Structure formats: C-alpha cells, structure tokens
What does this fold into?
Amino acid sequence: MPPSPPQSTQIPESPPVATAPAVAAPARTEPRPPGPPRRRTSRRTGAALLRRLRRVSGLIAVLLLWWLGTAQGWLGSTTPSPGAVWDAGVELVRSGEYGHHLGVSLERVARGLAIGIPLGVLLGLLAGLTRSVEDVIDAPIQAFRMLPHLALAPVFIIWFGIGETSKTMLILIGPVFPLYINVLHGIRGVDNRLVEAARSCGLGRWGLTRRVILPGALPQIFVGLRQALGIGWLTLVVAEQTATTSGIGYLMTDAREFLRTDVMFVVLVTYALLGVLSDLLVRLLERRALAWRRGFTGT
It folds into this structure.
C-alpha cells in the first residue's frame, strides 16, 4: 500500500484578548492662588501682640503712678516728675557727659562679668561632675558666699588700691556664687535614669556630659545667669560710689552733693533699664538654646 500523506496539524487560534479602554490622563490644574490667612495664624499674631502689651503694661503703670505721685505731692516736693527727669537726661546726653560716664560703667561691668561668669560656671561644673572636687571646694565657697561682698569694698581698696583693679574684683566676685550653686544643682538635678540609659548606649564620659548632663542642666544654668547679671549691676553701684571720678555711679554721687535730684533719677532709671535689657538678652538666649524643651508656660 502506498504510504498515506502526512496529516497537517493546525493550531487553534486563541480568542482575541479584550483590552481595557485607555484612561485619559487627568488634566493638570493650575495652582490656586493663595487664599486669605487662616484664623489660626491671626489668632497667634493677636495673642503675641497681646502678650507684648502685657509685658510693657507694668512699666507704663509705674510711670503713671510716678507722674501722679509727683503731681499730687505724694512723693515729696523734691521728687522730680518723669518730664523733669527726661529733660535732665536730654541735657546730659547733649553735653556728652552721660555718654562718657555710661561708657566707663559698661567697660567696668564687662570686665568683671567676663571673669566672674566663666569662673562661677567652671567651679559649678567641676563640683557637679566630680564629687571629690565638690568635697574640697564646696565648704570654702559656701563660707565666702555668706560674706556680704558689697561690704568688702574697703577691704579690696586696701588690697588692690583705689584704681580699676579693686572695682573689677568687687564686680567679678558677686556673680560667682549664684552661678556656682545653680550649675551645681542643675547638674545634680538631671534624672539618673537618663544617665544610665546613655551609658548603656555606649556613651563615654565626654559624650554623656555633652549630650545628656549639660542639656538637662541648662534651664538651671540660665536661672543662675540671670541672677548673676542682676548682682553684677548691683555691685557696680557700690563700686562706682567709692573712690572714683567717672561712671554713672560717680555721676549720681556728684548730683547728690549739688542736690540735683533730677540727675539722680536719671542714673536710677539708667540702672533699671540696663537690668531689664540684660535680663531680656538672657531670656532670648534661653529661648534659642532651649527650643527643644517643652515645659509648662503658664495658663
């Protein structure tokens, strides 16, 4: 029999695959113009403005009471009014006398604080971080702290003479003690659980001090700094009223001898403003350095 022809194998065609209809890309929308400010922003601005007004309201109240007291005679006939003090201050500024004495006083207090503040911080750090150092220096510092340092002015004149050295020494010794106490107790107030947790993470002594202890002690350190600046200005008053021929303290002494009460009040207002400005500067530094801290701010 002849061989049968080979049979052709046909592959069945696969049914057409249904494709989903193409989805048109969403049209790009133009950015909307910025709308009106939100209520939350306006509320924050209003609260900030109200708080600033509250901060200056106390000073305005003092000025009003001062003016009313002089107008009604409650403060005596020799007490100058705020207007008379303003006129005397303008006269001193125009003559150049005020600027000269103020510059001398600022230089003196800067020299004293430039030595006293680092010294107080250093002693507090050494005593706070090392117990053996605290055992050695704490008792002498506490003993000297009990001495009225303003009464040491005659002693410093005997030791260092009547020049600028005795005044600088008197100014620098005042800020040392509040800084020492606040730095020491700020370090010892750090939670020991944080210290143990940092040690378990492998932090050494330097890393532990820089990242845990010092940040935890900063709030107390700033409190000590505010107290130190206040004591520095208070000491300047006494230092410039003893054996000196320049400075705003000398200006006040000279005005007292000539019964210029308006000039005396100019000096008193100057001391008050210097204290307020230095305190505001420390609070600004504190706000920047402790931006990470979320503490209770009052109700």
About this structure: Residues 5-12, 14-24 have pLDDT under 50 and may be disordered. Residues 205-239 form the longest helix (35 residues). The two ends are 114 Å apart (CA to CA).
